[in-house]
Write a structure and sequence with these properties.
It contains 22 helices and 31 strands. The protein is about 30% helix and about 20% strand. The strands form eight sheets. An eight-stranded mixed sheet has the order 12-11-8-6-7-14-15-24, with helices on both faces. The protein is globular. Helix 4 packs antiparallel against helix 5, helix 12 packs across helix 13 and helix 15 crosses helix 17. The longest helix has 17 residues. It is of the alpha/beta class. Strand 21 and strand 22 form a beta hairpin. The structure holds 5'-O-[(S)-butoxy(hydroxy)phosphoryl]adenosine (WT7). 5'-O-[(S)-butoxy(hydroxy)phosphoryl]adenosine binds next to helix 13, strand 25, strand 26 and strand 28.
Length: about 700
């Protein structure tokens, strides 16, 4: 499956100096290690596991699994019998065994230039232990679910690791999601506590997070589920605490980190949010932290104890709680981070993703910390205060490994090379991308303008479900082809299937599936194992189905072609068409809705919605604005429709199924419709073409 020889043409090789000291220096070495990882996974992963602390060793096979629904329940177990603690491994082990206590874990860079904070591994451990004690004091115990709804601040990492330390299961909800979305996630995993913040700035815009969190908790109560406790971080200011909160400010001065964080933040922020406070429910993070010990014995967990839940869109519209467990996830994110970014001790690594998505979980929190890496944690936007911000930060911290999304690259590309060339960027060594297929133009710009043609690009394909990278280049070893995620990571066995489920060999295109598990693959959909089985394993028994299309070229390179289910990828985030449609039909004026993706030069896809109105309703700008608002409020800003078109009728098959394929063509203005013989009424299509939204792009 892996070619004997990497192609010599049309490919980019990483800089020669990359190879020196690289973990995987050549393509031959990659192939050799890949074969070992497949033929003897116990040995391969056993070697990787030696870097970690195990309270007790595993007893059975390294990986045990069933991927075939026809043979019984689907399961994946990794390192059964072992016990460990993920927080202990990513913090205590670094501070005590590896003597990295004084090493910087995070350079926090705030939204506002000048807002900054440096946190060492020792300080992080101290904070995490204290917050773990806070959680315990609030009644959180092993196995309990904790919802975290926070901006990109160090305390978000602290909250996650404190959960891991006491064996609680965190469920981080991206701070851009709406109250409704937060509520839905809290209720689904029955979280006993919510951790949030007063608010934060995104560029110029103040987001009053606590107000949204309160609304979510109210919605939970309305649904008969009461959360009872909410810990609120005063991120924006201490004044907020003194002026508008009824709870008394901390009597004792808060030690070290806390104090420093407050000073820094107060200095730079302009407006502070008004924070409503209900003393029955709301507890102040700082006050709680001042009254606990900084020692906290980790809770020893077995390998398959849950580590976290992270929701991802599902094609039925209801988000799925993807569950990851302790040992396998830790091992896999640590190993992929180390090898895919070729991590070195003196690196400064920066991943621009939000921790609210899996990229942040695996490659801001767990993977880098497991390796004792120094990371930049950035709260702001690539365009604030100007479009040079990213490169300014790269120079400021001497970032050597940089990881972002194609949508960010396309956005910055629009402003040309001048804002990039204003900064030196000579510290950069490896550039990464994730989230969607990267178009070759964006790849070339990233490579030549950002990386000055020196830095290999790792185009990492993976999913919330896969836990970590599954198809990816290794920077010193893999000759790159712009737009291809190249080859499988160690332990991963991809295949391409046709519609009848037959494996295709050689040059081919079809469904991307995986034939066996790797340590970091998800274990279940929280509370709904049946949905896990039917979503990923039912279509092709024996395989994990990604939902992506894929092409393999003559050199064996994998090219992801995009989703082949009813999912849209907007700025690297998956949205289900059903979810947006259900938000639209929630409006009294809408009888039926169909949502498709329309190519967008920056976002990848934009949301194009067709709505059929109820009799007597008129489509106008007011209604359009209301519908956009409706979706935004139900799901979050990322799901705001770009276009809404009135559809007196939708193109349907004779059996009544909406033909999305046709709608996609209408949305993007392509006249070549292909075979439309199953269409019940072809005049509908002509009508929709005539009235389509044709915005200037
Ligand atoms: C979907 C997963 C993995 C973290 C971010 C998204 C698409 C992701 C790539 C890539 C082509 C990619 C796929 C995948 N995708 N990375 N390098 N090349 N497509 O996580 O929200 O779970 O989305 O993102 O369609 O299935 P997610």
């Amino acid at each position: 499956m892996i070619p004997d020889k990497a192609p010599e043409e049309d490919v980019f090789h990483g800089a020669e100096e990359m190879r020196r000291g690289a973990h995987v220096p050549t393509f031959d070495k990659y192939k050799e290690m890949y074969m070992q990882s497949i033929e003897d996974p116990d040995k391969f992963w056993g070697d990787m596991a030696k870097d970690f602390f195990w309270k007790s060793k595993h007893t059975g096979r390294f990986l045990d699994y069933n991927f075939d629904v026809t043979k019984g329940e689907i399961f994946i177990k990794c390192m059964e019998g072992a016990s460990t603690n993920v927080c202990y491994n990513v913090l205590d082990r670094n501070v005590h065994d590896r003597k990295l206590g004084d090493k910087v874990a995070f350079y926090w860079e705030g939204n506002e230039p000048g807002d900054e904070l440096t946190v060492t591994y020792r300080e992080l451990l101290n904070c995490v232990c204290r917050f773990a004690n806070v959680l315990k004091s609030q009644g959180v115990a092993k196995g309990d679910r904790v919802a975290i709804y926070m901006p990109m601040v160090v305390e978000l990492v602290v909250a996650m690791l404190a959960c891991a330390r006491i064996g609680a299961v965190h469920s981080v909800v991206f701070a851009g999601f709406s109250a409704e979305s937060l509520c839905e996630r809290i209720v689904d995993s029955q979280c006993s506590l919510l951790i949030t913040a007063d608010g934060f700035y995104r560029g110029d815009k103040l987001i009053n997070l606590k107000l949204i969190a309160d609304e979510a908790l109210q919605k939970c109560t309305d649904k008969g589920f009461s959360v009872g406790r909410c810990i609120v971080l005063k991120h924006l200011s201490k004044e907020a605490q003194e002026t508008s909160l009824s709870s008394p400010p901390a009597k004792r001065p808060c030690p070290d980190l806390q104090k420093e964080m407050e000073t820094v933040r107060v200095r730079k922020t302009r407006l502070v949010p008004q924070v409503p406070w209900n003393p029955e429910v709301d507890k102040c993070w700082h006050t709680l932290m001042c009254n606990v010990s900084d020692e906290c014995e980790p809770e020893w967990c077995v390998s398959e104890d849950p580590l976290f839940i992270l929701y991802t869109s599902g094609s039925t519209g209801k988000p799925k709680g993807v569950l990851h467990t302790a040992s396998g996830y830790m091992l896999y994110t640590a190993t992929t981070f180390k090898l895919v970014f070729d991590h070195r001790a003196d690196d400064v690594y920066w991943c621009t993703a939000d921790i609210g998505w899996i990229t942040g979980h695996s490659y801001i929190t767990y993977g880098p910390l497991a390796n004792g890496a120094t990371s930049v944690l950035f709260e702001g936007l690539p365009t604030y205060p100007d479009v040079s911000r990213m490169w300014e930060i790269v120079d400021k911290y001497h970032v050597s490994k940089f990881y972002t999304a194609p949508t960010a690259i396309r956005l910055l590309m629009k402003y040309g090379s001048e804002p990039v060339h204003k900064y030196k960027r000579d510290s950069l060594k490896v550039l990464g991308t994730v989230g969607e297929p990267i178009n070759p133009e964006a790849w070339q710009w990233y490579f030549t303008v950002v990386g000055d043609g020196r830095c290999p690009i790792v185009d990492t394909f993976w999913q919330t479900e896969t836990g970590g990278h599954v198809i990816t280049p290794l920077p010193a070893a893999t000759p790159m082809k712009p737009g291809s995620a190249t080859f499988p990571f160690f332990g991963v066995v991809p295949a391409i299937l046709n519609e009848s489920g037959e494996e295709l060999e050689g040059t081919s295109e079809g469904y991307l599936v995986f034939k066996q598990p790797w340590p970091g693959v998800m274990r279940t959909v929280y509370g709904n194992h049946g949905r896990f089985e039917s979503t990923y394993f039912k279509k092709f028994p024996g395989y994990y189905v990604t939902g992506d299309g894929c092409r393999r070229d003559k050199d064996g390179y994998y090219w992801i072609t995009g989703r082949i289910d009813d999912m849209l990828n907007v700025s690297g985030h998956l949205l289900s068409t059903a979810e947006v449609e259900s938000a639209l039909v929630g409006h009294e004026a809408v009888a039926e809705a169909a949502v498709v993706g329309r190519p967008h030069p920056v976002k990848g896809e934009s949301l194009y919605c067709f709505v059929t109105l109820r009799d007597g309703t008129i489509f106008n700008h007011t209604l359009e604005a209301q519908l956009k608002k409706q979706v935004r409020e139900k799901i979050g800003a990322i799901a705001t429709p770009d276009f809404i078109q009135e559809a007196p009728a939708l193109p349907k098959t004779r059996s009544g199924k909406i033909m999305r394929r046709v709608l996609r063509k209408i949305a993007s203005g392509e006249r070549d419709l292909g075979d439309v013989s199953t269409l019940a009424d072809s005049s509908v299509v002509e009508q929709l073409f005539r009235s389509r939204c044709c915005p200037a792009m």
